[in-house]
Amino acid sequence: MYDVGGVMLCLTCFTRWQQANAANQRAENERLNQLMAHQNYLSEMMAWIAGVPDTSPKFRIPQPILANISQGQTLNYINIDRSVIGMLNTGSIEDVQRIDVNVKSLVDSGNTEFAKILKSMTEAIASNGELSDPGRSDLLEQLNLISGQAALPEQQRKIGLIKPVLSGLASSLSAVGSLAKLWQLFGDSICTYFGVDNPLKS
Q1: CA 6, 10, 15 angle in degrees (round to 5)?
Q2: Cβ distance 173 to 179 under 8 Å?
Q3: Model-level pTM greater than 0.85?
Q4: Where are the domains of the chain?
Q5: Scanning 18, 29, 51, 106, which has the fewest C-beta atoms within 10 Å of its C-beta?
Q6: How far is it, in rounded angstroms, from Cα 57 to Cα 45?
């Protein structure tokens, strides 16, 4: 069971709740991208009307990665072998693509160490032969949500969402012998980044 704001959810309901939150976050990101693009347009239009060069700073609008990695094309930061792609379902592939986008955002904002952690964990989970397909999908989905929250400004992060996801990720990784070392290596750093307690130590 997962505690979400005092409400206990089963894994299925918790997964659906995560998916709904992820969809809302994607919609919000798209809205912000549109606002930034419109602001850039207005700035250029004002300069054009005034007949002067547009030297004002522009918003940097994140560009989603649209590459179809099932056809062997590479991502920007996460390296996954073609043989591994065959083990991933469509949902997992989409999660990996979104994680890669979030890793890029972290690198661009100077959070390279946390970006390296996400990269290492994603590659390890995606290529692990001990995981079942549903198990791999759950872990990548959790990592996608964590990476999305990590890429947000600190004041916009939802600790109520982050805590149960980190708890689920830590428990799931620790239950897989070949992946247990991932949380041992990176768990403290991840929790410190978000300012929460390590669920396996609290």
Answers
A1: 95
A2: yes
A3: no
A4: 1-61, 64-202
A5: 51
A6: 14
